[in-house]
Design a protein that fits this description.
The complex is a heterodimer of chains A (283) and B (125).
Chain A: E1 4-13, E2 16-26, E3 31-36, H1 42-49, E4 57-62, E5 65-66, H2 71-74, E6 77-80, H3 92-102, H4 108-118, H5 131-144, E7 149-153, H6 161-177, E8 181-185, H7 189-192, E9 198-203, E10 206-212, H8 213-217, E11 220-226, H9 227-234, E12 239-245, E13 248-254, E14 267-270, H10 273-281
Parallel strand pairs in A: 3-8, 3-9, 6-7, 7-8
Antiparallel strand pairs in A: 1-2, 1-4, 4-5, 9-10, 11-13, 11-14, 12-13
Helix pairs in contact in A: 4-5
Chain B: H1 10-23, E1 32-33, H2 36-43, H3 47-59, E2 63-66, E3 70-73, H4 77-104, H5 108-124
Antiparallel strand pairs in B: 1-3, 2-3
The chains are: A alpha/beta (283), B mainly alpha (125).
Chain lengths: 283, 125
């Protein structure tokens, strides 16, 4: 049971701003989706939370304690990073052993069980694994570590559809058995939409919003039909974007579809999480 | 297998999925239904979402919780769902049928004929 509070975090890489005054709270025992386009600052944020890199200014507070340079606070966090943070000459099972030194609640039996489900040979060296299996090894390590905060940075990179599906099942199962705070950074929004309870969307180093996924779904809807009719309907309404094809037009309108009075001849549909994400993060 | 990827909120889809299974007899009255943990693992949905879906049905007295045992279908649930669905039938199917028919220039009599034909076909089966 752990909470992460991020206050006014700013990070620059040379002249590039990776994060700009980011403040967001990850409440305990909730599965978060951290969504953003390439270069939005997702990995930087996760790296700062887990103490792998330092912010220029701002604070990361874990369970009320400033986590910067604080080992006991950082021990509550596990980061499954895109990079391999272990010595590549280690065997998979030795990576688990190493992790169990840092995470006293590491569940070795569970890790071995998952490996057999993925048909991952734990005697193989990390350097000898394919991209997909290296991801699986890191994902198993993260699921088994027992830390109250687990950050997953692109956890399904290089995984085939079957393995991705298996991973989502394991996330849900593990979370049901041993609730923890999960932050999953991913581009596969459609696939993870059912799993995440809240989404934090970042755009160009700033938090766009932090909302329940159900709430995000009701943020907008699409209206399509004859261009003139659609334009007439959209008058005075706030728009997220749109598409046109010949005389046909689709506009993405902000607001709830339930309260919208859609005129005859136009068709309206709710937007899914991915669609809303795309409209809101288009530059 | 159901797939909760529609445009409706997932907890509503899940509640509808359970109702559908009660209606078709997959979950008979006074029998136990799968736990939220089982449902969320099977369909890869957040356990909190699954719980939200279940709670809708508990509030509607479609299912009830037995402490320490799990969730069971209320007796009379099937009838309750059926009468609710009948009420929705007009909104959901008849209105959209008429709007589509109007678009295609199908007359009222033609619709009635089609429905009669469809119903007769079903009865023969």
């Amino acid at each position: 049971m752990s909470t992460i509070e991020i206050r006014d975090l700013t990070k620059n890489y040379g002249k590039t701003t990776a994060l700009s005054n980011v403040s967001v709270t990850f409440k305990e025992n909730c599965i978060y989706g951290l969504l953003g386009r390439n270069g939005a600052g997702k990995s930087t944020l996760l790296n700062i939370i887990s103490g792998r890199t330092f912010a220029d200014s701002g604070e990361v507070i874990i369970d009320g304690v400033n986590a910067t340079g604080n080992d006991s606070a950082l021990c509550k966090v596990h980061l499954m990073s895109e990079q391999l943070l272990y010595n590549p000459s280690l065997k998979v099972k030795d990576m688990f052993k190493t992790a169990s030194f840092y995470y006293p609640d590491f569940d070795m039996e569970y890790a071995m069980k998952l490996c057999s489900e993925y048909e991952l040979d734990t005697n193989r060296k990390l350097s000898k694994l394919s991209t997909g299996y290296r991801t699986i090894a890191k994902a198993v390590n993260a699921l088994a570590c027992g830390a109250p905060i687990v950050l997953f940075d692109e956890p399904v990179l290089g995984l085939d559809a079957n393995h991705r599906d298996l991973f989502y099942k394991h996330v849900v199962n593990r979370y049901s058995e041993r609730p923890a705070t999960y932050v999953i950074s991913t581009h596969l929004i459609e696939e993870t939409a059912g799993i995440i309870e809240r989404a934090v969307i970042i755009k160009k180093g700033e938090v766009l919003f932090d909302k329940d996924t159900d709430e995000i779904r009701s943020m907008g809807y699409s209206v399509s039909g004859k261009a003139a009719d659609v334009d007439e309907f959209a008058k005075g309404k706030e728009l997220m974007g749109g598409d046109a094809l010949g005389g046909l037009k689709t506009l993405y309108v902000k607001g709830s579809l339930e309260n919208a009075d859609i005129p005859e001849g136009l068709s309206a549909e709710p937007m899914n999480l991915q669609n809303i994400f795309i409209q809101l993060t288009n530059s | 297998m159901a797939n909760f990827d529609g445009e409706k909120p997932i907890y509503i889809q899940m509640a509808e999925w359970i109702e559908e299974n009660i209606l078709t007899g997959v979950f008979p009255e006074e029998t136990q239904i799968p736990s939220t943990t089982e449902i969320s693992a099977m369909y890869r949905i957040n356990p909190a979402t699954a719980l939200k879906g279940v709670n809708i049905l508990v509030d509607k007295e479609i299912i009830y919780k037995k402490r320490g045992l799990g969730m069971f279908v209320c007796s009379g649930a099937e009838q309750k769902i059926r009468s609710e669905r009948k009420q929705e039938f007009c909104d959901k199917y008849i209105k959209s049928l008429i709007s589509e028919a109007t678009k295609l220039g199908i007359t009222k009599n033609e619709i009635i004929n089609m429905i009669e034909k469809g119903c007769d076909g079903n009865e023969h089966n």
